[in-house]
Write a structure and sequence with these properties.
By secondary structure, the protein is an alpha+beta fold. It has 30 helices and 22 strands.
């Protein structure tokens, strides 16, 4: 689904204006935060509303016992703000380093340790929200609530009527309570109609998990939870899924904070990864493992908890295990096994297919039977690569498989498989089709199947109360189309071996330097895929138009830092793709680049002269005159001359030299070409440059500073590498390596570099 319009909202006033404008014109709209979800909550063919970085404010309250967060705050950042108080927010989704609070609350996301006791529904204290008519309600402000009770009496009366109806129907009340003994994010939070009596409280909790279909969450205040400083983890391997499931039932009554289950296929998917325990390659498809974690306030308490846990399951045959440990490296390796399973499937899938991750919950007492039947469905529908893992304490399992949508046969196979899964989980085992990922479009056709006609009618009434025109994220949660999950399927065409493994999860976006200027890595890949599709379909005019856009947004503005690869679950460095594109794009400039590489001293001297001239002109003419002159010329030349900025640095006139006096402590200092040539901002109060400060610091610390020979000719090669000129990059890199090798006395002395290298 491709939006007709994408609107970026800077503040609450923008949101109110957009909602009211869409409402007056009867135009549907959808909210999108980080968009890490793979269930189709944040896609639209109408108006898509995204948030700028201005939505990242936070405020810690009561020594961290509460925290107020805007929807653009990344989940992991919220926890960073709480570190001094040894607290954290309750939800802990696996995507916490990328997903944002808006999505966490709107999906009622949970995670590995969160369970059902610490999700947003259970830990929300107050909320500022915007309803369909643009009304802003702050449930934590008495005056705002008083005004809302007067202005929206009909809405609150409607909510109160629904509460009375549910509470008067004992069978329905019991069903709702029964459904929420498990993790459950299928449909609206009907438990709010049972758990609360004040319509304001009900409204607040109905917003949790509503996936942008009832209103916009502009701010949320969480009651935080304790973050225990002492943790230990163990990996326990059982002979079969039944033994592991029985162990889970016993572990539930011990002091565990997390129990992650992994079936045999899941274990085999990561068995050949570096650092895995020696026994991993020997495990069969029958084996099943539990990754167990315990947390405590003190080391002694943690030790006793681990003893209690192991004693409780001492009767089980555990053929392989990694005993409880707090060693950081070992713990990271163990959790790396669990976290590496989703990308393990994604990395080996056939190009052109996508990765599907589903999220169900079985009653814990029937977990083993549920897993066995789910595995049988994999075999029946030929999903031989499918793996199962998940949060066993809540019976919450994720299963991952690959799927192509390039033929009607494949779409039909997927549709039939999902029908079978829905019958198995929701009907036979009375479980949850969506435990923590939100309903989305993928499960919307099955909401009534899981809940029944009466409960589904309640959900439709809730939607109508909050959104009488049906404009808020239509098709999500409530959808009359039984085939909604197999329509508007996004193609994943083959584009390039460097990026074909991309699953478009968006984990890369948070660390991309250019994400607010032009495109993020995910967006670059999506556009590149579309360009290759257009080229393949011989749509040359559309291809050329998109290529023109991509040249600036995708190619010229990519920093090619490789930071995206650190966050990517399948290790894709989008910068490598851009460098590959640049190799062809900048081929005609290779002779110039070669000259600068061979005359690097002269090149940097010219750069310093230019910076000196700019500083002089800026002082003489002033910023306004220089801006008008230089940038005016740029307009006349249609952008072919350089752009001027008032923040250009001055030239660095300091030349680092080897210390004259010999000292026992010695260090090789390599100032990068950037710090050698660029000084401070012209308005800076600091007189000394980076190279001067570094030299002074080292000498005052008692070091003899050694500068590599022919420093002015040295370059790490990154400027050439970032333009895709690999041969020149390698030549400059090798020359610098030789100079540093000589200066460090064949590697005996440490080398200090003041900026990063390629």
């Amino acid at each position: 689904m491709i939006p007709e319009l994408i609107v970026q909202a800077d503040n609450l006033e923008d949101i109110v204006f957009i909602i009211q404008t869409c409402g007056n014109a009867n135009i549907p709209f959808t909210f999108r935060a980080a968009g890490t979800s793979l269930s189709g909550q944040a896609v639209s063919d109408s108006v898509l509303i995204t948030l700028t970085d201005n939505w990242r404010d936070h405020e810690t309250l009561e020594d961290g016992k509460r925290i107020k967060l805007q929807p653009g705050v990344i989940g992991a950042d919220a926890n960073k703000y709480l570190i001094p108080f040894q607290r954290k927010i309750g939800p802990d989704p696996a995507s916490i380093n990328s997903c944002k609070i808006g999505g966490i609350a709107a999906n009622n996301a949970s995670g590995m340790c969160c369970g059902t006791a610490q999700n947003t529904y259970k830990t929300v204290d107050a909320m500022t929200l915007v309803l369909h008519d643009g009304t802003v309600l702050n449930t934590g402000d008495d005056e705002s609530v008083r005004q809302f009770r007067n202005s929206h009496k009909d809405l609150l009366d409607g909510i109160a009527t629904l509460c009375d109806e549910v509470k008067a129907d004992s069978a329905l009340s019991e069903r709702i309570q029964h459904k929420y003994r498990l993790k459950n994010t299928t449909g609206y939070a009907l438990n709010a109609l049972v758990d609360f009596s004040d319509p304001i409280d009900v409204l607040t909790h109905l917003m949790v998990g509503s996936e942008g279909t009832l209103g916009f969450i502009a701010e949320i205040t969480y009651n935080t939870v304790i973050e225990h400083p002492n943790k230990a983890s163990a990996l326990l391997v059982f002979n079969d899924i039944e033994s592991a499931s029985n162990a889970v039932s016993i572990l539930a009554s011990t002091p565990v904070s997390a129990v992650e289950m992994m079936d045999g296929r899941a274990l085999q998917s990561v068995a050949d990864k570096p650092g895995m325990p020696d026994f991993m390659p020997t495990l069969t498809l029958e084996h099943s493992a539990l990754l167990v974690e315990s947390r405590a306030a003190s080391e002694d308490e943690l030790y006793q908890q681990c003893r209690t846990i192991m004693a409780a399951i001492s009767a089980f045959d555990i053929p392989h295990q990694v005993m409880f440990t707090s060693d950081a490296d070992t713990v990271n390796t163990l959790w790396g096994i669990r976290k590496g399973m989703f990308p393990a499937v994604g990395a080996v899938r056939e190009a052109g297919t996508t990765v599907i991750i589903e999220d169900v919950a079985f009653p814990v007492e029937r977990l083993a039977a549920g897993v066995r039947e789910l595995q049988a469905l994999f075999d029946e529908y030929a999903y031989n690569e499918a793996i199962i893992f998940g949060h066993a304490l809540e019976g919450n399992l994720h299963f991952v498989f690959t799927q192509g949508f390039d033929s009607e046969v494949e779409v039909e196979r997927y549709g039939a498989f999902m029908d079978a899964v829905a019958q198995l989980v929701a009907v036979k085992y009375q479980g949850s089709l969506k435990a923590e990922h939100g309903t989305g479009r993928n499960m919307a056709p099955y909401v009534e199947l899981e809940w029944g006609a009466h409960a589904y009618r309640l959900m439709c009434q809730i939607k109508a109360l909050f959104d009488p025109k049906g404009l808020l994220n239509p098709g999500v949660i409530i959808n009359d189309n039984p085939n909604a999950h197999i329509t508007h399927l996004k193609p994943m065409p083959k584009a390039d071996a460097l990026i074909d493994r991309c699953i478009e999860c968006g984990f890369c976006e948070a660390v991309c330097p250019s994400r607010t200027l032009s495109l993020s890595p995910r967006q670059r890949i999506v556009l590149y895929r579309e360009m290759q599709r257009l080229k393949h379909d011989d749509q040359s005019e559309k291809y050329k138009a998109l290529e023109k856009t991509f040249n600036y947004l995708g190619v010229d503005t990519c920093a090619a830092t490789g930071l995206c690869a650190d966050r990517c679950p399948v290790g894709i460095n989008t910068g490598d793709l851009i460098k590959q594109v640049r190799t062809e794009k900048y081929k005609r400039f290779t002779p110039i680049a070669s000259w600068t590489a061979n005359h690097f001293g002269a090149t940097t001297a010219i750069a310093r002269f230019g910076l000196k001239a700019n500083a002089s002109m800026q002082k003489i003419l002033g910023e306004k005159a220089l801006d008008k002159t230089v940038n005016g010329l740029r307009k006349l030349s249609n952008g072919s001359t350089p752009e001027w900025h008032p923040d250009y640095p001055t030239a660095n006139t300091h030349t680092p030299k080897t210390s004259e006096s010999w000292k026992a402590k010695r260090v090789v200092y390599y100032p990068s070409c950037a710090s050698r040539n660029m000084g401070n901002d012209i308005k800076s109060d600091e007189d000394r440059t980076l190279t001067e400060v570094t030299m002074s610091l080292l000498e005052r610390a008692g070091y003899q500073v050694i500068i590599p020979k022919r420093l002015d000719e040295q370059c790490c090669g990154m400027p050439y590498d970032s333009k895709g000129m690999k041969d020149i990059f390698k030549e400059k890199s090798y020359r610098l390596e030789a100079a540093l090798w000589q200066a460090s006395e064949l590697g005996k002395l440490p080398v200090l570099i003041d900026t990063s290298l390629a």
